[in-house]
Amino acid sequence: MRARILLVAAAAVAVSSCGDDGPDGTTAAQLDAAAPLVSAVLGQAPPTVPPTTALPTTVADDASGDAAGEEPVDEPQAFAPNGEAVEVRALDNTFRPETVQIEAGTEVLWINGGRNEHNVIPVNEDETWGVDLEGFQPGDEYRFVFDTPGTYRYYCTIHATKDVGMIGAVEIVAPAS
Fold it and tell me: For each of the chain's 177 residues, which pLDDT tens digit applies?
């Protein structure tokens, strides 16, 4: 019995070391090749693998390239600077206020009012705003105008993780019409 287990394990290793063509790393050809060995060891008929079918492709219904039946996704509207500003202080291990809600186009002014160095780093690594340690020593300021509605979370990498510690958020709403 132990020899059978070893042979089945060896067959599984041989099959799994072949290429990654399918979603689980095996192809029908690999399973077909291993089937006689598995059936000989187990004394059973080999398992069958159903043929795969190709997924339907999406067809564009017009020159815009939109998929048939799908609505185009609206890009968020950006707003021009409005001359307004709100202040956030980086103190020793906290941002005050921690969350601000402002209209799009408003400038946020972060001031390092503490005794320690800090930074202001977006949680979303794809965002390009924020200031590193070198530019945000005690007494330094950093300004940024948020022009697109949404919630922009940030943190100080020295005194927090992305979710706990010295964290903050800027909630941007569309200007009143």
Answer: 544 444 444 444 444 444 444 444 444 444 455 555 445 544 555 444 444 444 444 444 444 445 556 677 777 899 999 999 999 999 989 999 999 999 999 999 999 999 999 999 999 999 999 999 999 999 999 999 999 999 999 999 999 999 999 999 999 999 987
Q: Is 131 exposed, middle or buried (0-12, 13-18, 19+ CB in 10 A)?
A: buried
Are residue 28 and residue 89 in the same domain, yes or no? no
Q: Compute the distance between CA of residue 157 and CA of residue 27 in angstroms, rounded to an integer.
A: 45
Q: Is residue 62 part of a domain?
A: no
Domain that holds residue 23: 2-42
Among 113, 168, 121, which Cα is nearest to 137's? 113
